[in-house]
Amino acid sequence: MAITLASSDTVTTVNQSAYGVSGTCNVADVSVSVTFTDGSATASSAAAACTSGAWMASADISGLSDGTITITAVAVSYT
Fold first, then answer.
1. What gap in Å lies between CA 69 and CA 61, rounded to an integer?
2. 1, 23 contact by CB (below 8 A)
């Protein structure tokens, strides 16, 4: 199973409360969970379904500190 994360937009005050990410997946009916971290705090998306080889998720990352944010996408379950 392969889960990829597409390039993401710069976080701004406009998009930080519903920051969207997307990517591809090669297994249908798998859920993708996305975690964002600034090194000390984290935020997570709701599980996003892999449909037609793609997934999309969003999360409120306004609580993370300014600077580098690491984004991780993983398959969490088959539906």
1. 10
2. no
Using DSSP, state whether 77 is helix, strand or coil: strand
Q: How much of the chain is in helix, strand and coil states, percent to nearest 5?
A: 5, 50, 45
> How many angstroms separate the CA atoms of 47 and 73, rounded?
10
Structure tokens at 10: 């710069």
79 residues of the chain, pLDDT tens digit each: 789 999 788 999 999 999 999 999 998 888 999 999 999 999 999 999 999 999 999 999 999 999 999 999 998 876 5
CA neighbor of 52 nearest in space, from 73, 35, 27, 33: 27
